[in-house]
Amino acid sequence: MESENNKPDRSNQRSRVNIELVPIRDPDHAAETDRTSLIPCSKYDYVLVGKEYAGDSEHDRKQKAFIKALENKGYQTQKLREKNKVYFGILAPQEIFSKYAHLLKNPDNCSEEEKVSTPTRIRIVKFMLDNTFIGNGEKLHALLKEKVFEAVFPLHEEREQKKLIKKWARWTACFKTQPINEVRMYFGEKVALYFLWLGWYTYMLVPAAVIGVIVFLYGLAFFESNPLIKEVCEGNSTIMCPLCDKCPMWQLSETCTYAKVTHLFDNEGTVFFSMFMALWATWFLEIWKRHRSREVCKWKLNNWDENEEELALELINDPDCTQDRYQHSYLRSILVLVLVCCMIALIIGLAQALVVFRVIATVFLSASKWQLMSDHANTVAVMMGAVLHYLTITIMTKVNRKVALFLCDLEKTRSNTGRERNFTVKMFTFQFLTLFSSLIYVAFFLGRINGRPGSYVRIAGMWRLEECHPSGCITDLFIQMAIIMVLKQTLSNVVEFMSPWLNYKIHNLQDKSPKGGSESNCIRDSWLHNYHMNEVNAFSLFNEFLEMMIQYSFTTIFVAAFPLAPLLALINNLFEIRLDAIKMVSLERRMFCKKTNDIGIWLQVLHAIGVLAVIANGLVIGVTSDFIPRLVYKYIYGPCAKGATDIDCMSGYINNSLSTVYMKDHNIRRDFEPSQLIFNGNNVTQCKYKDYRSDDDYAYTSQFWLIFAARFAFVLLFEHVAVVIKFIAAWFVPDVPLAVKNENLDRKFERLKRELRKMENRTTDI
């Protein structure tokens, strides 16, 4: 035992454990005011860790002042020195939990005698620690920022840890049911609801993945017999105009493989699948609400009020406190709105920079000495753009977070919950635009704003914008989505797991001190083991939710271009559940427990994604896909429309969708270099490009305007039908099951009966 003023013996510090007890009133033994016995190592609520500073330093003074402030509130503390670190074990007095139970008597079970659970205890003590301040008004957050303390964390419970590892937090449990209630009793309701939602989302992905695979196989089944593919693959006599300033003329048949891939993802089944996914998104949300209601009813949290709990904790911490009032400033709101618009403009600017990169890359790749590279310059440029887009996403994620936090500071919300809600909306908006701005360009602008031979649109008057393949632009969208989704899910998950796993192993190798069986060694082993685990913070669970929301966006928005997205999401989620579980239980410090009865603002985010999915998929089919032009050709311009019965109705579609330019026109020749006008040693007199224009004056043909009107009508019809189906599904499926409603009714009835009996008994006694 050593007094606090004595300096530790550093020569023997690596092999010796120094425990210093601070005599303080033990809340469980009120009569024994000088009780200093060791508390069992698993009973501490929190551990504070900091460097061991010199006794006359400012940081040491602040450390002692904060611990003294806790002691004045009745907290019991215990101090341990180890390897230039000082650890403070914190045990809260029972009085604050009794006050909590009395003030927040749960209206669902009407009992204040119910024992405060460990997650609730962790949450209460965390609030008290965060709102304890030293003489100059500094709170724990400021002390952590100044490095007075390095870390604050609740301790893992070894026995409960082993139970969760056995049942849940291991790779061999991938196909087992999650023990949600046990997760809740260890990590709290917010973490439990995350895993409940993730498990339900994964379960609901099964039918979506099955239908997506069927649509893919449908395209594969007609791979060889499709007349459009045959027309492209046999188009040796069709000379196409160059796709870039350095690109040569090319034969239509050179893109046979591209046409086959396009047909896999752009066929009649795509329309059905898009409509199905719009209905699936609504069905998923409505059934999720019912699923959540059942679990929350079991937890007896239907009538839990977040604001009431926060007010109660403020009163328990300081009975003389004054509550924070709601504030609103139009000036601040305008400033935030302007800054958000500036950030969105920056993100859109980055998307345009990617467009410029792809255009320039196409020019340089087409001049490459590698034949394979020059022949597929456009496709390689799209793939390189997708990889660069992924790197941009990785960098912008950090920028978006800092900006979102800064904007939340400007808003000055009343509570942490309100701040978290505002941060979530801004961060998701920025991340969504970062991921999807480039995809939006590929889906709706690529090949539609590039002009025509003789009048190309150029960037800075130099580089031509990209063009679509004669089979359509949907393959470019598919390539972008596939690369980003695969990279994001594989690389992100590898980094997400391997980084904390390696850190954990390295810390374990560094700490090879012998473990003893005494209570002192138990304290040391427990505290050091928890300290060396990976850090968690307020963003830990937010990051998991955000990752899944982005994945959900990929699974529903633009799914018409990538029917296999639900299958990839399903496979990823089967591992994601266990990865997150293993991280939280075995590799990271215990997460700060939070109480809630729903997933909060994320539910509104899911609703918004569902609406965007309907709009985006309608536009993909109506605008990006060649589904509408094919229908118009089949029923108005094709051979069947003219009475032919011995030929496929789609024969001649590719040639019909191409326009011709003649090199005798000076304006046309000016747009190409002399070397581009030679193909196979012969001078080219004409070439074709994808558009519906007159060969004489290059004006749009009547077929173009008919297709334009048909596209517009289809988008309106698709979105209105999908929205009507969504509303009918939402109305048809109640958010709360009847069993839950009746159970809540019974509880209220029983509560009123008990209150009435109590009143009658008091009247009788009088």
UniProtKB/TrEMBL annotation:
Keywords carried by this UniProt record: Cell membrane, Glycoprotein, Membrane, Transmembrane, Transmembrane helix
Q: Where mainly found? A: membrane
Q: Where in the cell is it found?
A: Cell membrane; Membrane
InterPro entries to which the protein is assigned, alphabetical = Anoct_dimer, Anoctamin, Anoctamin_TM
Q: What is the membrane topology here?
A: Multi-pass membrane protein
Residues covered by the Anoctamin transmembrane domain: 183-744
Per UniProt, residues of the Anoctamin dimerisation domain are 113-180
The record lists the membrane-crossing segments as 194-218, 270-288, 334-360, 380-397, 428-447, 549-575, 599-623, 704-733
Q: Does the keyword GTP-binding apply?
A: no
Entry superkingdom: Eukaryota
Q: Please report which protein family the annotation says this sequence is part of.
A: Belongs to the anoctamin family.
Put simply, this protein is called Anoctamin
UniProt source species:
Huso huso
